[in-house]
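Exercise 7.
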Amino acid sequence: MAESYHLSFGIPVATFGRSTPTARASRAAPSSRRSCPSWRGQREIRLGDLRPTRDFTFVEDTARAFMAVADAPAEAVVGRTLNAGTGVEISIGDLVKTIAAAAGYEVTVAEEAERLRPAGSEVMRLVCDSSRLTAATGWKPTVSLARGWPRPAAWFSQPENLARYKWNAYTV
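Solution. The predicted structure, written as tokens, is:
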């Protein structure tokens, strides 16, 4: 719709995407919350399909990408679709293990049938190509998954923070 308004009425817009999946509790992004049982003493984490891969961008990099687009010359970004991401993918199963390791826990990850999506509906691979954004603004991600996860892991390890989440609820 934004592109349509740009093309039809000359409204200066840039469509901006980020690679991190949406933060619904049934999606991959809240995997850190699903790892919370490890902070509660449980060592098994139940998820849906563990095979899909995703490209996770740390929030600081996402904020810098938005600022890079805002600060770029209009001719470099207006009317263009720009994506921010790392270009690095990780499976959901490996992601949970990475998060648990960052928190200092060993966990087992189990697939749970009720959490599997209907046949043919799972997107198996989401990985970003941010080359247009880099060319237009010079932006590149700076925080790797390995460097980024210890910070939220430390935050979730605090009982007052963990108490805010329904760690054992599955939401569709």
